[in-house]
Amino acid sequence: MTAETSQTLDRGLRVLKLLADTDHGLTVTELSNKLGVNRTVVYRLLATLEQHALIRRDLGGRARVGLGVLRLGRQVHPLVREAALPALRSLAEDIGATAHLTLVDGAEALAVAVVEPTWTDYHVAYRTGFRHPLDRGAAGRAILAARQGALEDGGFTLTHGELEAGASGAAAPLVGITGLEGSVGVVMLADSVPERVGPRVVDAAREVADALR
């Protein structure tokens, strides 16, 4: 901790991170041990976080992440979208295909930003808010591959016809962003993805990741 930072805020944020990493919640004693502070401090932190609905306590006294975190989370997508748009525009215009940023939302892939090329006669219509299973389509498969440490050579994933007949996709995961799983990709009406597209998608994913750090 430096002189410019708040120890109390730091502890509160650490509490939220610890609770976010468990499915069954944590007791005051468990939090006290993990934080290295006494139980009185933990009680005060939990009371404050509970007032803001950021945590909740069940009948057994275990603390869990509260619904207030979801309300904060809804504001993340517009910020992420704004940061990603320049790289997506460049990718769409360069490749001549619809570019998208996709994030994990539960067990699904959710398109949070989409940019269509301006100069093509036709392109795939792919809308913000589109959802699909993580194990279908290049966007979701790239995320899963990164999660499992099983990315293909080159760092991108290619698919054909998994989400839309006649459409091919290429996607690369966002790398090095704590707490955010996603990918950048393109979708095009083609039997296969041209060779130069995969590396270009990897570059765009790196640009988006850099913008989000």
UniProtKB/TrEMBL annotation:
InterPro entries: ArsR-like_HTH, GAF-like_dom_sf, HTH_MetabolicPath_Reg, Tscrpt_reg_IclR_C, Tscrpt_reg_IclR_N, WH-like_DNA-bd_sf, WH_DNA-bd_sf. Keywords: DNA-binding, Transcription, Transcription regulation. It comes from the Bacteria. It holds the Pfam family IclR_C. Residues 6-67 form the HTH iclR-type domain. Residues 68-213 form the IclR-ED domain. This is Helix-turn-helix domain-containing protein.
